[in-house]
Design a protein that fits this description.
218 residues; mainly alpha; hpI Integrase, Chain A; three-stranded antiparallel sheet; 5% strand; globular; DNA binding; Integrase_catalytic; DNA recombination
Length: 218
């Protein structure tokens, strides 16, 4: 049986362009939980559905960990996501917005339901990005490409992306064309912390009345 075709996702893969995108998200004046969820999606490198379906019970902020159960993962394996200090601060800021319901990122209409499947991409379109320029799922392509280009261990990057070891998947998620010398093997927690500092955008913490400071870029 022939393996299913792996399809790439529209994504921004240069750091300067990614910084512009992050600034656009920072300036987004839509629903606060959508803005926070987009930023959390970038900080954690997971799939959009895993962020939308996140529940309060999955987070252990004292241990800076997000534990996604197997039934919510595409590969049907549980996934423990180490949270950078920026990610922890973001969750702490939006925690009151999710009170009264299970979803960490509740919908506009009710706190008892998560954001809709199209919420992320609709917001990106409102920021002026077309479907051919960037998609929410493309954030993972961005992370994989930039981290690989910076010379991080590809196996650690694959672990962060919760991928099974597959060259086909790696090729789909990476658009860098030349191999780079690799740094020593680093854990997922260190890599996610460094990922949160990668973009070339604003240099100060972003603040908003609803969310407070959460995303720092150097």
């Amino acid at each position: 049986m022939q393996a299913p075709k792996t399809i790439g996702r529209a994504a921004i893969t240069d750091e300067r362009g990614f910084g512009v995108l992050l600034n656009a998200i920072d300036d987004y004046d839509g629903w606060p939980t959508i803005k926070a969820a987009l930023q959390f999606l970038i900080l954690t490198c997971v799939c959009p559905g895993e962020v939308r379906g996140a529940t309060r019970q999955e987070f252990d902020l004292k241990k800076a960990t997000w534990n996604i159960p197997a039934h919510r993962m595409k590969m049907r394996h549980s996934h423990s996501v180490p949270l950078s200090r920026q990610a922890v601060a973001l969750i702490e800021d939006i925690w009151p917005l999710s009170e009264g319901g299970e979803p960490m990122f509740p919908s506009i209409r009710t706190r008892k339901k998560p954001l809709s499947e199209n919420a992320f991409n609709v917001s990106l379109r409102r920021m002026g990005y077309s479907k051919d320029e960037v998609t929410a799922h493309g954030f993972r392509v961005t992370a994989s490409t930039i981290l690989n280009n910076r010379g991080y261990d590809p196996d650690v990057i694959e672990a962060v992306l919760a991928h099974q070891d597959s060259n086909v998947i790696r090729r789909a998620y990476t658009t860098c064309s030349t191999p780079r010398s690799l740094s020593s093997n680093e854990g997922s927690k260190t890599l996610l912390h460094r990922q949160s500092h990668l973009p070339q955008g604003r240099t100060s913490c972003v603040q908003s009345p609803e969310l407070g400071p959460h995303l720092r870029r150097c």
